[in-house]
Fold this protein.
Amino acid sequence: MLPALFFFALLGIASSACAQDAASILEKADTIRFPREAFQVEVSVNSATSSGDEYRKFRILSKGNENTIVQTVEPASERGQILLMKARDLWVFMPNVSQPVRLSLAQRLTGQVANGDLARANFSGDYTPRLVRTEKIDGQDHHVLELTAVDRGVTYARVILWVRASTSAPHKAEFYSLSDKLLKTCIYEEYKSLGGKLRPTRLIMQDALKQGEQSVLEYSAMQLRDIPDKVFDKEYLKKLQ
Protein backbone atom coordinates (compact mmCIF):
# COMPACT_ATOMS: atom_id res chain seq x y z
CA MET A 1 0.00 0.00 0.00
CA LEU A 2 2.77 2.45 0.91
CA PRO A 3 4.62 2.07 -2.41
CA ALA A 4 1.37 2.79 -4.25
CA LEU A 5 0.73 5.90 -2.13
CA PHE A 6 4.32 7.00 -2.73
CA PHE A 7 3.88 6.54 -6.49
CA PHE A 8 0.70 8.63 -6.60
CA ALA A 9 2.31 11.32 -4.46
CA LEU A 10 5.21 11.53 -6.92
CA LEU A 11 2.73 11.62 -9.81
CA GLY A 12 0.92 14.52 -8.16
CA ILE A 13 4.16 16.42 -7.63
CA ALA A 14 5.18 15.83 -11.25
CA SER A 15 1.79 17.03 -12.54
CA SER A 16 2.02 20.16 -10.40
CA ALA A 17 5.54 20.87 -11.69
CA CYS A 18 4.41 20.43 -15.31
CA ALA A 19 1.50 22.82 -14.74
CA GLN A 20 3.86 25.41 -13.23
CA ASP A 21 6.30 24.97 -16.12
CA ALA A 22 3.52 25.44 -18.69
CA ALA A 23 2.25 28.56 -16.91
CA SER A 24 5.77 29.98 -16.73
CA ILE A 25 6.42 29.31 -20.43
CA LEU A 26 3.13 30.95 -21.41
CA GLU A 27 3.74 33.99 -19.22
CA LYS A 28 7.19 34.53 -20.74
CA ALA A 29 5.78 34.20 -24.25
CA ASP A 30 3.09 36.75 -23.40
CA THR A 31 5.64 39.31 -22.19
CA ILE A 32 7.47 38.95 -25.51
CA ARG A 33 4.30 39.52 -27.49
CA PHE A 34 3.25 42.59 -25.49
CA PRO A 35 4.59 44.64 -22.54
CA ARG A 36 3.30 44.17 -19.01
CA GLU A 37 3.14 47.96 -18.72
CA ALA A 38 0.47 50.15 -20.31
CA PHE A 39 1.27 50.80 -23.97
CA GLN A 40 0.14 52.20 -27.30
CA VAL A 41 0.79 50.55 -30.67
CA GLU A 42 -0.23 50.92 -34.32
CA VAL A 43 -1.49 47.86 -36.22
CA SER A 44 -1.92 47.67 -39.99
CA VAL A 45 -3.98 44.77 -41.34
CA ASN A 46 -3.89 43.67 -44.98
CA SER A 47 -6.41 40.94 -45.74
CA ALA A 48 -6.89 38.77 -48.82
CA THR A 49 -10.49 37.54 -48.99
CA SER A 50 -12.77 35.96 -51.58
CA SER A 51 -14.42 39.36 -52.10
CA GLY A 52 -11.12 41.19 -52.62
CA ASP A 53 -8.35 42.81 -50.64
CA GLU A 54 -9.04 44.84 -47.50
CA TYR A 55 -6.88 47.31 -45.58
CA ARG A 56 -7.40 48.54 -42.04
CA LYS A 57 -5.23 50.46 -39.61
CA PHE A 58 -5.84 50.56 -35.85
CA ARG A 59 -4.38 52.33 -32.84
CA ILE A 60 -4.45 50.25 -29.65
CA LEU A 61 -4.24 51.57 -26.08
CA SER A 62 -3.84 48.77 -23.55
CA LYS A 63 -3.44 48.61 -19.79
CA GLY A 64 -2.96 45.13 -18.39
CA ASN A 65 -5.14 42.46 -19.95
CA GLU A 66 -8.39 43.96 -18.72
CA ASN A 67 -8.54 47.41 -20.35
CA THR A 68 -8.09 48.01 -24.08
CA ILE A 69 -9.20 50.57 -26.64
CA VAL A 70 -8.99 49.79 -30.36
CA GLN A 71 -9.42 52.90 -32.53
CA THR A 72 -9.98 52.64 -36.28
CA VAL A 73 -7.55 54.99 -38.05
CA GLU A 74 -8.09 53.88 -41.65
CA PRO A 75 -10.07 53.79 -43.84
CA ALA A 76 -11.20 57.39 -43.34
CA SER A 77 -14.86 56.34 -43.73
CA GLU A 78 -14.59 54.28 -40.52
CA ARG A 79 -12.42 56.69 -38.53
CA GLY A 80 -13.90 57.36 -35.11
CA GLN A 81 -15.10 53.79 -34.60
CA ILE A 82 -13.81 52.53 -31.25
CA LEU A 83 -13.80 49.15 -29.51
CA LEU A 84 -13.70 49.24 -25.71
CA MET A 85 -12.82 46.16 -23.72
CA LYS A 86 -13.14 46.02 -19.94
CA ALA A 87 -12.44 42.57 -18.49
CA ARG A 88 -14.21 40.36 -21.06
CA ASP A 89 -16.93 42.86 -21.88
CA LEU A 90 -16.60 44.44 -25.31
CA TRP A 91 -18.49 47.33 -26.90
CA VAL A 92 -18.22 49.19 -30.19
CA PHE A 93 -18.77 52.95 -30.32
CA MET A 94 -19.66 54.48 -33.69
CA PRO A 95 -19.72 58.22 -34.43
CA ASN A 96 -23.32 58.30 -35.69
CA VAL A 97 -24.80 55.93 -33.11
CA SER A 98 -25.69 57.30 -29.68
CA GLN A 99 -25.42 54.04 -27.72
CA PRO A 100 -22.55 51.52 -27.76
CA VAL A 101 -23.24 48.06 -29.16
CA ARG A 102 -22.18 44.94 -27.27
CA LEU A 103 -19.93 42.55 -29.22
CA SER A 104 -18.35 39.14 -28.79
CA LEU A 105 -14.56 38.74 -28.55
CA ALA A 106 -14.84 35.93 -31.11
CA GLN A 107 -16.68 38.09 -33.66
CA ARG A 108 -14.72 38.95 -36.80
CA LEU A 109 -13.25 42.46 -36.93
CA THR A 110 -11.62 42.35 -40.35
CA GLY A 111 -10.33 39.54 -42.55
CA GLN A 112 -9.07 36.72 -40.32
CA VAL A 113 -8.81 39.03 -37.30
CA ALA A 114 -11.33 38.59 -34.48
CA ASN A 115 -12.12 41.37 -32.01
CA GLY A 116 -10.28 39.48 -29.29
CA ASP A 117 -7.12 39.17 -31.40
CA LEU A 118 -6.55 42.90 -30.91
CA ALA A 119 -8.51 43.61 -27.72
CA ARG A 120 -7.05 40.85 -25.51
CA ALA A 121 -3.28 41.25 -25.29
CA ASN A 122 -2.30 38.02 -23.48
CA PHE A 123 -3.17 34.35 -23.35
CA SER A 124 -2.44 34.10 -19.61
CA GLY A 125 -5.59 34.42 -17.55
CA ASP A 126 -7.86 33.42 -20.43
CA TYR A 127 -6.46 29.90 -20.86
CA THR A 128 -5.21 27.01 -18.76
CA PRO A 129 -1.92 25.85 -20.30
CA ARG A 130 -0.60 22.30 -20.55
CA LEU A 131 2.83 21.34 -21.85
CA VAL A 132 2.09 18.66 -24.47
CA ARG A 133 5.52 17.94 -25.95
CA THR A 134 8.74 19.40 -27.29
CA GLU A 135 9.53 19.26 -31.00
CA LYS A 136 12.19 20.59 -33.35
CA ILE A 137 11.45 23.27 -35.95
CA ASP A 138 14.32 24.34 -38.19
CA GLY A 139 16.71 22.61 -35.80
CA GLN A 140 15.44 24.52 -32.75
CA ASP A 141 13.58 22.95 -29.80
CA HIS A 142 10.07 24.29 -29.34
CA HIS A 143 7.64 23.72 -26.48
CA VAL A 144 4.13 22.87 -27.62
CA LEU A 145 1.43 24.18 -25.28
CA GLU A 146 -2.24 23.30 -25.32
CA LEU A 147 -4.30 26.23 -24.04
CA THR A 148 -7.84 25.50 -22.87
CA ALA A 149 -10.26 28.39 -22.39
CA VAL A 150 -11.19 29.09 -18.77
CA ASP A 151 -14.78 29.82 -19.89
CA ARG A 152 -16.84 30.47 -23.03
CA GLY A 153 -16.31 34.23 -22.87
CA VAL A 154 -12.81 34.15 -24.35
CA THR A 155 -11.96 34.42 -28.04
CA TYR A 156 -11.16 30.76 -28.80
CA ALA A 157 -12.10 27.49 -27.09
CA ARG A 158 -8.62 26.02 -27.54
CA VAL A 159 -5.22 27.16 -28.78
CA ILE A 160 -2.10 25.15 -29.63
CA LEU A 161 0.96 27.36 -29.22
CA TRP A 162 4.56 26.66 -30.32
CA VAL A 163 7.18 28.55 -28.27
CA ARG A 164 10.94 28.46 -28.87
CA ALA A 165 12.49 26.72 -25.86
CA SER A 166 15.65 28.87 -25.71
CA THR A 167 13.96 32.28 -25.80
CA SER A 168 10.23 31.72 -25.02
CA ALA A 169 9.45 33.51 -28.29
CA PRO A 170 6.12 32.46 -29.86
CA HIS A 171 6.49 30.82 -33.27
CA LYS A 172 3.08 29.55 -34.32
CA ALA A 173 -0.46 29.15 -33.00
CA GLU A 174 -3.52 27.16 -34.05
CA PHE A 175 -6.95 28.40 -33.00
CA TYR A 176 -9.91 26.04 -32.49
CA SER A 177 -13.66 26.47 -32.11
CA LEU A 178 -15.89 25.08 -29.37
CA SER A 179 -16.58 22.06 -31.63
CA ASP A 180 -12.77 21.61 -31.89
CA LYS A 181 -12.64 22.68 -35.53
CA LEU A 182 -9.39 24.35 -36.61
CA LEU A 183 -10.34 27.92 -37.54
CA LYS A 184 -7.00 29.50 -38.44
CA THR A 185 -3.28 29.43 -37.87
CA CYS A 186 -0.96 32.30 -36.98
CA ILE A 187 2.75 32.65 -37.70
CA TYR A 188 4.77 35.10 -35.58
CA GLU A 189 7.70 36.56 -37.51
CA GLU A 190 10.00 39.53 -38.21
CA TYR A 191 11.25 39.96 -34.65
CA LYS A 192 12.41 43.56 -34.15
CA SER A 193 12.95 45.95 -31.25
CA LEU A 194 9.51 47.25 -30.34
CA GLY A 195 8.70 48.92 -27.04
CA GLY A 196 12.22 48.21 -25.76
CA LYS A 197 12.17 44.46 -26.47
CA LEU A 198 12.49 42.01 -29.36
CA ARG A 199 8.93 41.19 -30.40
CA PRO A 200 7.18 39.69 -33.42
CA THR A 201 6.16 42.67 -35.59
CA ARG A 202 4.48 40.66 -38.36
CA LEU A 203 1.71 38.11 -37.83
CA ILE A 204 0.25 36.02 -40.64
CA MET A 205 -3.24 34.67 -39.89
CA GLN A 206 -4.38 32.03 -42.38
CA ASP A 207 -7.93 30.72 -42.68
CA ALA A 208 -7.94 26.95 -42.14
CA LEU A 209 -11.30 26.54 -43.90
CA LYS A 210 -10.84 28.79 -46.96
CA GLN A 211 -7.56 28.27 -48.78
CA GLY A 212 -5.75 31.45 -49.77
CA GLU A 213 -7.59 33.74 -47.37
CA GLN A 214 -5.34 35.41 -44.84
CA SER A 215 -4.60 38.59 -42.91
CA VAL A 216 -1.14 40.07 -42.35
CA LEU A 217 -0.83 42.19 -39.21
CA GLU A 218 2.10 44.59 -38.88
CA TYR A 219 2.85 46.23 -35.53
CA SER A 220 4.76 49.53 -35.29
CA ALA A 221 5.32 52.68 -33.24
CA MET A 222 4.90 50.92 -29.89
CA GLN A 223 5.47 53.13 -26.88
CA LEU A 224 5.11 52.55 -23.17
CA ARG A 225 2.96 55.28 -21.67
CA ASP A 226 0.98 56.15 -18.58
CA ILE A 227 -2.70 55.73 -19.42
CA PRO A 228 -5.17 56.94 -16.76
CA ASP A 229 -7.98 54.54 -15.87
CA LYS A 230 -10.57 57.16 -16.90
CA VAL A 231 -9.54 56.69 -20.54
CA PHE A 232 -11.25 53.28 -20.46
CA ASP A 233 -14.57 54.75 -19.30
CA LYS A 234 -17.53 54.76 -21.69
CA GLU A 235 -18.19 58.46 -21.16
CA TYR A 236 -14.58 59.40 -21.82
CA LEU A 237 -14.61 57.69 -25.22
CA LYS A 238 -16.75 60.50 -26.65
CA LYS A 239 -13.65 62.71 -26.38
CA LEU A 240 -11.62 60.28 -28.46
CA GLN A 241 -14.03 60.15 -31.39
Q: What stands out?
A: The two ends are 69 Å apart (CA to CA).
